[in-house]
Design a protein that fits this description.
heterodimer; A: alpha/beta; Aconitase, domain 4; four-stranded parallel beta sheet
Chain lengths: 200, 472
């Protein structure tokens, strides 16, 4: 189960501003009536992108110039609410490869990392700088560097941060822990045997 | 060195350290439901893996079940497909499934405790953020994503980093007409919707000592709405008394040993915390939300905030966005806001004591004309308990529809949904935009008794006035 070493993400960025963007907003619950994650991409941010009749509302993701963007910019507490992995799955299946926000809700952050989607934090001012760049250079290249912990764009560079356990997992290609967890199964049985409710 | 419960449970369940510095943590109890598990079973099949400890995973069906249709196939073929998939997966991998035919089906966070599966000093995981509910028993309970559901199925463990612990002490007696729901809405209002990020919340103090298990569950349930993935109350005699005799609780011969083991997990006197917050119970009033996240709350006697009173630019933007969505007038009293729907139920407030408390006050009263009111027990067992006590009849006579167990109108994955911009007085846990199934639907969170008061008056009201609750 060799995983890619994700040391950087390069692509165009799109800004979806706002704080406390919750997982119901990212993927409304009615689209979770499915037994696979296939096809979730088209429902990303559905209720803020589409009218009831399916026509488009004004939204950054609906602007042709931002089609094909692979880096999502947003505000504080991104991904709050439910534990639905459908949220990062929808983000990934839409085509995003990384998210830059002021900070992230706990469960969303873990779910994204496990899918190999770097969630990095930057200051509001720096996110505004990246957003300003993409606003005037929608085709401009943005590079998230997980080794140097910086984002480069249009000759500028700003600092980013990421929880070290997540950064380590991404850059060393061990962001999906399943292989390592399975390797630990003999030790799991020893720990379980010491706990009365599991030993019984 | 004295330790808190989180550290003790964490240490007892630590298997080893992983290469990235996270811990491989043993998850003693795994709960699954139809929405977040099918893809995990799919991943297991793709990888050719088995379920490592099938007797430690328990399943039920809650999110998609219609509360007014008992006979399958369900009208919604997608809901039926999810039901069939869960049945198939449980049968194939040897997992206990509390299906509707067992009489034990219900919302996963109600079923675990009532079966005695949820126990002190244990680790619990479930693909649902309200898993924090189980912390009421002194368990460390995590809401997880589907890839982690796969990890727990395949290895009974997951990769996690330890959390910091914030002790939230509430002391004193709640005023009459103030409930556990008000306590947690007050805490979230005070500490913010992301104030708990990176923390486990330890709820303590004399208010919690005096709480029933159901009240403790209501508070722990909404920890995640304050950003805390985990919330817990230290186990005590109330916890042990609740568990005694339940189907999965230790049997008589093992009971005393189990209790002494459970007791050993409680936080030690003098244990260290990363933060401590103290609240006076008497300062908590019946609380309602006015906005689009659970932190946007006010007491029933306060006015709806206006952008001019914002404390920061962020707060101002938040108020403007919320008022536009909620269609509420800035600065006006929240009391008197007209409602369209009243919803009693959910994993937050769908337990026996919630319906008992409502029935006590609503007996002989009528739901206001034009208001749709539904009461949804959290499990088949809760339904039966209510029916034995005649609570269903009291609610029905008042004008509430008495439904079958499920998540119902909390989250819009079943036929119970708001229509258009209907405003719902709701005992559930989230007031996000569109949460209750209409993209313009509006939610005001509150305690069950406050929902009852809203139902009978047709507007957001102070239950203490509506039901003449004596103030001492």
């Amino acid at each position: 189960m060799a995983l890619a070493k994700i040391t950087s993400v390069t692509g165009r960025a799109v800004n979806v501003p706002g704080n406390d963007i919750d997982t119901d907003r990212i993927i409304p619950a009615r689209f979770m009536k499915c037994v696979t994650f296939d096809g979730l991409g088209e429902f990303l941010f559905y209720d803020v992108r589409k009218q009831l009749d399916g026509t488009e509302k004004p939204h950054p993701l609906n602007e042709p110039r931002f089609k094909g963007a692979t880096i999502l910019l947003s505000g504080a507490n991104f991904g709050c609410g439910s534990s639905r992995e459908h949220a990062p799955q929808a983000i990934a299946k839409y085509g995003f490869k990384a998210v830059i926000a002021e900070n992230f809700a706990e469960i969303f952050f873990g779910n994204s990392t496990t899918l190999g989607i770097p969630c990095v934090t930057a200051s509001r001012e720096d996110i505004a700088k990246i957003a300003a760049f993409t606003e005037t250079n929608s085709q401009g290249e943005v590079v998230i560097d997980l080794v140097k912990l910086e984002v480069r764009f249009g000759g500028q560079a700003v600092k980013i941060a990421q929880r070290e356990s997540a950064r380590d997992a991404l850059v060393n290609g061990r962001w999906d822990a399943i292989g390592e967890l399975i390797d630990g199964l003999p030790a799991v049985k020893i720990t379980a045997a010491k706990l009365p409710y599991l030993a019984a | 060195m004295p330790k808190n419960l989180f550290q003790k449970v964490w240490d007892a369940h630590t298997v080893r350290q992983l290469a990235n510095g996270q811990t491989q943590l043993l998850i003693g109890t795994h709960l699954i439901h139809e929405v977040t598990s099918p893809q995990a079973f799919g991943m297991l099949r793709d990888l050719g893996l088995k379920v490592a400890f099938p007797h430690r995973t328990f399943a039920t069906v809650d999110h998609i079940v219609p509360t007014d249709q008992f006979i399958e196939p369900y009208a919604d073929p997608l809901a039926q497909a999810m039901m069939d998939e869960l049945r198939k997966n449980c049968a194939q991998f040897g997992i206990t499934f509390f299906d509707r035919a067992t009489g034990k089906q219900g919302i996963v966070h109600i079923v675990g405790p009532e079966q005695g599966i949820t126990q002190p000093g244990t680790t619990i995981a479930c693909g649902d953020s309200h898993t924090s509910t189980h912390g009421a028993f002194g368990a460390i309970a995590f809401g997880i994503g589907t890839s982690q559901v796969r990890d727990v199925l395949a290895t009974q463990t997951m990769a996690l980093g330890a959390l910091k612990v914030r002790r939230i002490e509430v002391n004193g007696k709640l005023r009459p007409g103030v409930y556990a729901k008000d306590v947690i809405l007050h805490i979230i209002r005070m500490l913010g919707v992301n104030g708990g990020t990176g923390f486990a919340y330890e709820y303590a103090g004399s208010t919690f000592d005096g709480f029933s298990m159901e009240e403790r569950m209501t508070v722990c349930n909404m920890s995640i709405e304050g950003g805390a993935r985990v919330g817990y109350v230290n186990p005590d005699e109330t916890t042990f008394a609740y568990l005694k005799g339940r189907p999965y609780a230790p049997k008589a011969a093992y009971w005393d040993a189990a209790v002494s083991h459970w007791r050993s997990f409680a936080s030690d006197p003098g244990a260290a915390y990363d933060d401590v917050v103290k609240i006076n119970a008497a300062d908590i009033a019946p609380t309602v939300t006015w906005g689009i996240n659970p932190g946007q709350g006010i007491s029933i006697s306060e006015n709806i905030p206006s952008p001019e009173t914002a404390t920061s630019a962020d707060d101002k933007a938040g108020i403007i966005e919320a008022l536009a969505y909620m269609k509420l007038p800035a600065g006006a009293p929240i009391k008197g806001t007209k409602i369209n729907v009243a919803f009693l139920g959910s994993c937050t407030n769908g337990r026996l004591s919630d319906f008992q408390e409502v029935a006590k006050y609503i007996k002989g009263r009528k739901v206001a004309p034009g208001i749709k009111a539904i009461a949804v027990p959290g499990s088949q067992i809760v339904a039966l308990q209510c029916e034995k006590l005649g609570l269903d009849k009291i609610l029905a006579e008042a004008g509430f529809e008495w439904r079958a167990a499920g998540c119902s109108m909390c989250l819009a994955m079943n036929p119970d949904k708001l229509i258009g911009d209907q405003l719902c007085a709701s005992s559930s846990n989230r007031n996000f935009k569109g949460r209750q199934g209409s993209t313009t639907g509006r939610t005001i969170l509150m305690s069950p008794v406050m929902v009852a008061a809203a139902a009978v008056t047709g507007q957001i009201a102070d239950a203490r006035e509506v039901f003449s609750v004596a103030q001492n």
